[in-house]
Amino acid sequence: MNPVQLAFRVLRVDGRTRTSTVLTAVGVAVATGLVLLLVSLPFATKARAERSIWQEVDYRSSGSAMLIVQGTDFTGGQEITRLDVSSTVDPHTIALPAGVPSFPGAGQVLVSPALFERMHELPASQLADRFQGTVVGTLDDRALRYPDQLVALVGHSPEQQPAGSYQVAGFQPAANAEVDPLLELLAGVGVVVLIVPSLVLVASSSRLTAARRERRLAALRLAGATPGQVTGIVAAETGVAAVVGALIGLAVSPLLHSLATLVPWDGGTWLPSDFGLPAGVTVFLVVAMPVLVLAAAVLGLRRVVGNPIGAASSHTPKPLHAWRLLALPVAGAFFFFVVSSNDSSAAMVLLGLLLVVASAVLVGPWITFAVGRIFVQRWRRPAGLLAGRRLLDDPRGAYRASAGVVLAVFIGSMALTLMPSFESMAGGGGTFRDPVLSVSTSSERAREVTAQTNARLAGYGQRARAAEVGEVVLSSVNGSRLQALVVPCAQANELLRVALTCDSAPAVYGLGDLSGYRVSGNYDEPGVPLVAGTQVRSLRPLDSDVSVDAIVDPAALPAGVVPGQAKVAVSTTGSDPETVRTALAASGESVYSRDVYLAGQQTELDDLRRVTVIGLVAAAVLAGCSAAIATAGSVLDRRRTFGALMAAGTPVRLLSRALRAEAALPALAATVGAGVVGMLVGLGLFSMIQEGREGVSAVLTPWLLAPVVLGLGVAVLAASVCTPALNRVRAEPLADE
């Protein structure tokens, strides 16, 4: 009988082996499905970028076929991507991106379906008038980053093209698209920190009947079976579950991809086609998962192959050595070396993270052994002594029940270190007050934009009026330079995030003494001294986010100094903000406001929170399942021992307490350690982002204790399956063993 036939014979006659096989297949399916999903994320971002790369200006392009300028607008808190274009050649010769029906002529506009609907829902003064043209068509999904993206392609004549346009050969081709680096990094981290718990689940499932299988294989070895035959039998038993699980994972991966399309990222959801993997990558991953499981199963045969008598008689495993503790500091040193290096790559960071996670496999059993020794020496209650003896005799098996929980605690602590630190970086953008909208333009065009905006505001019946704010440079004799805004004092108090004391005399306002500073329109121009007698007054910022260095009254500007750049700003106080935005955006420039700037930060933080919650829930579920299966397997592995204890009169309640203590004691020590290590790894990852940013520091909150407490609770809760398992042992005759 060949190994495959023997494996199926065992599956037919042994119910516990069937249970173990089914659970192993489920574990492999989960691992395969997660791997296929996580590996597809970079490909999904690449597909997104290929569709939407035409919405970005290709500054490296050399040609003169068209003029283009890209801007950003907002409506109701949603971003609008706006492209103003004009053709300098026959527009039919310009290659169009997929999903763009035609090149818009002067006065024509192409919009996305979602923007088309929004334009018809709102009054023209709040949205449609911004584009100054007639909608002649819509873009389809092939031209959009995500299904509900708001995009406008506005056509002009070359003479009416907005300022700041670039002359290019055409729209940017899809070949220039790149992967989203942040989601690529998160996908790599996900592969490391979620696949390991999945493999722990597989290992726990395969160990469900480990003792019985070891005795069976040892008997075959003693009966004359060769090591190769024994290995073939195990490979066949495990291979059935691994291959079936991998195929199930492949079959359910489209469902996982469909669910992933509902998770927003970078402002919107996904198209189902985004998550397609190349066939070669899919085949490799589906084949790799069973191979890893088979390799782990074969490596676990060393005891049976090398010492069948010891396996058959269940000799005590070799004691653990303290050198295992070196694995964690060595892995940690490598990880922190990588994150502190200036030229470290994402692959090296992920390798360091993987080594830290893998070091738990070596350190965890020794901690379990140490905890068992303490309880055997100092505890005198029966449940504690039974638990301590188990931890001391088989620390590897005892740790296996809490391995998934330890990894989940590590992930949670790392995430709860990074998220508050990321949130502390939010803010900034503090030039104008919150109700103020502004556009940046050249000083020559600023007056025209101001006049046009005020005319539109008057036509819409709005009280708000636009003001021109110039930008000059103040330079001192020691070489220091400040960016200064040119605006009357009264308007500065209305528009800027500062408080000034105004007087009839023109003045210069700053955070320090500005006496002796010279004024120039641009950084590369020689400065002109301030007019003699110009007053220098203090500038009081309203909050810490203010980014205004100095303010110059227009009357205090020396003759001949012309601001190099300018802003046109409007306060929406007392007016309809969307109508004011329309009046300002009709100039073709990108409208900036602080609330939208902060909303963009909030979108990024929401993306990270969403991904973190999904990852933590997945890790917790996997950890709980692996702990429950490992506890049940521990009971079945020691069926003889527990059956004898119960036959001698030991209550099931006492044995249940001992088993819960087995799970809780190593979990308590290991989860505390995992929490500390997760926090340190989180600080290491944050240091890579923090580098080069002044005033940014990591934030540690009391929520860091939550993963440890929840992890311990999950371990104890999962260990509650021991009571049903013990009742099953009591119900079955010992002779069955």
Describe this structure in words.
With 737 residues, the protein is an alpha+beta fold. The strands form 3 sheets. Strands 7, 8, 9, 11, 12, 13, 14, 16, 17 and 18 form a 10-stranded mixed sheet that branches. The radius of gyration is 34 Å and the shape is elongated. Among the domains are: 1-55 and 178-315, no CATH class; 57-171, no CATH class; 436-593, no CATH class. The protein is built from 21 helices and 18 strands. A hairpin with a 2-residue loop joins strand 1 (66-75) and strand 2 (78-87).
SSE layout and pairing:
Elements (H helix, E strand, L loop, with lengths): L2 H11 L1 H38 L13 E10 L2 E10 L20 E4 L1 H9 L12 E5 L11 E6 L10 E3 L12 H26 L3 H13 L4 H34 L18 H21 L2 H5 L1 H5 L14 H14 L5 H33 L3 H12 L1 H30 L11 E7 H17 L6 E10 L5 E6 L2 H7 L2 E2 L7 E4 L7 E3 L7 E2 L5 E4 L1 E2 L8 E3 L12 E7 L5 H9 L5 E3 H44 L1 H9 L4 H39 L14 H14 L3 H10 L6
GO molecular function: transmembrane transporter activity
Subcellular location: Cell membrane
Membrane topology: Multi-pass membrane protein
